[in-house]
Amino acid sequence: LSEFHKPGENPQVKPELKEEHLAFTKGMVHTRFPPEPNGYLHIGHVKAIMIDFGYAKFHGGRTYLRFDDTNPEAEEGRYFQSILETVRWLGFEPWKITYSSDNFDQLHKWAVELTRRGKAYVCTCSAEKMKADRGMGKGHPVACEHRDRPVEDSLREFERMKNGEYPEQGAALRMKMDLTSGNPYMWDMVAYRVKMAPHHRTGDKWKIYPTYDFTHCLCDSIENISHSLCTVEFIPARESYEWLCDALEVYKARQYEFARLNLQGTFLSKRKIAKLVQKKLVKDWDDPRLYTIIALRRRGIPPGALLSFVSELGVTTSESVTEIKKFESTIRSYLEESAPRLMMVLNPIKLVIENVPDDYRVPVQVPLHPKVPSMGTVETSFTKEVYIDAEDFREIDSPDYFRLAPGKSVGLFKAPYPVTCTSYTKDPTTGQITEIKCKLEDSGTVKKAKAYIQWVNVPDSIKIEQVRYFKPLFKSDPPPSDFESDINPESLEVFDNAVVEPAFYELARKAITDARKESEIRTIKAKSEFASSPSPSDESDSDKKVE
Ligand code: ATP
Ligand code: MG
Ligand code: MG
């Protein structure tokens, strides 16, 4: 970031445009975060948000949240709202919320002006012909017969495109760039195409929509962006970005690039995630196997942990893939000091202590955190019958095994004495252990336990309807391009019999209530934001479960 130009000293601003630009920005840094509202944001966007908002914030500047809504088919109202909520959840507040579509009139005027200047033309070649002419990968592009048509022709045909006289793909306005350039982004990129789909904000006013390449730099220009920050795949696009601003002689922002965030074993692309959701390969956009921000939030990851993960990665221009292990260890160490520990048994087996009376009940204080006493303790009772996890018992003992087995002792976490297994019963048909009998070593006969296991007392236990345990979504790493056939069938494991102690339930309920309240406030705020400006249709799901 130190290589960016200084605030107020954008080297690309032509002297004749400088005054106007500075009058607007007063020399302040102006950035924008420009998501396309075609899905929910993912962890890669956290990086973009931190850089866009963080850079401006550091310099006392301003950041726009700009919805890049030039593609009517893919956009839905709920995405707009969720994007705003997510930006705020991460702790950033947009200076202004704008839409590329706010500028459709101006962009259209500029397209006409570009055509008038002989720098754009209407092309009616088929998509295949256009692709072949552009030579994609096979040498230099060739001009089509429309490239040198008279300006008047192009102006007339562009007007006809606008009036809906061409079908979709029937015509395009192309920029007349440089076919001799080595950069494919200079090969007469499309500026406008015909689309009949109604638009979220402009309804059916337009039959033509500007492309990303035409829109982005000009919206940056309109908003007086000083630093246009984007990911490295846009490096070759910088030339066309600048070409267009120069062709129209308008204010031009300076583009800087940073490396995308990539995570091992998954992909970060709204389009691909949308496909998984549509095909029901995951439950929804907040499925915990995804790396969307709403999924991470649902997993209980606080915003600070995500910010800390991204800032540890740093900002460079070299592409890399970050290991999931690294992600998880950062989150874990962020939560280490603040997350309470409570006992849960996923696969319960009843353990009966034979040498105590039926009404045996000893209060036990269990610390919420082994190393943070200030977090306090919860009280539970140690009783004659407790549940332990099936994983903590083995029928056949071995010297390197320290948990429970016939004749062996183990500690029950924070219980007064260890227990020793005296016998067990098994279901003859399924072979599953049904009950374990133990004796309580209450007179110091057994040395200190070698291991402690979790337990939940039977009389107070609360059964959890379903515990879902998630593993990587894909079998391969990285997932192949036909990722739909690579879904790991064991990526979701469901436990139907898990039990927890009452304190777990109380704490979880409180956490859920708090999270829900906070999320409702955020949703109401985001909703009212959209209500005060022409609103994208409201399909929000504010009542959606918070888990
Ligand atoms: P997707 O491919 O997921 O739809 P995109 O690349 O089209 O995402 P947008 O949501 O349209 O991105 O853009 C928002 C901003 O977020 C862009 O500036 C983009 O460069 C940035 N961005 C998107 N993905 C990542 C990522 N993995 N790492 C860093 N920045 C990203
Ligand atoms: Mg995009
Ligand atoms: Mg993309």
Automatic annotation (TrEMBL):
Q: What class of enzyme is it?
A: ligase
Domain Glutamyl/glutaminyl-tRNA synthetase class Ib catalytic, by residue range, is: 28-336
Q: Has the keyword Cytoplasm been applied to this entry?
A: no
Per UniProt, the keywords (alphabetical) are: Aminoacyl-tRNA synthetase, ATP-binding, Ligase, Nucleotide-binding, Protein biosynthesis
Q: Where is this region: Disordered?
A: 526-547
Q: Indicate the segments forming the Glutamyl/glutaminyl-tRNA synthetase class Ib anti-codon binding domain, all copies.
A: 339-440
Name of protein: glutamine--tRNA ligase
Q: Where does this protein come from, organism-wise?
A: Kwoniella shivajii
- The portion of the full protein included here is 242 to 788 of 859
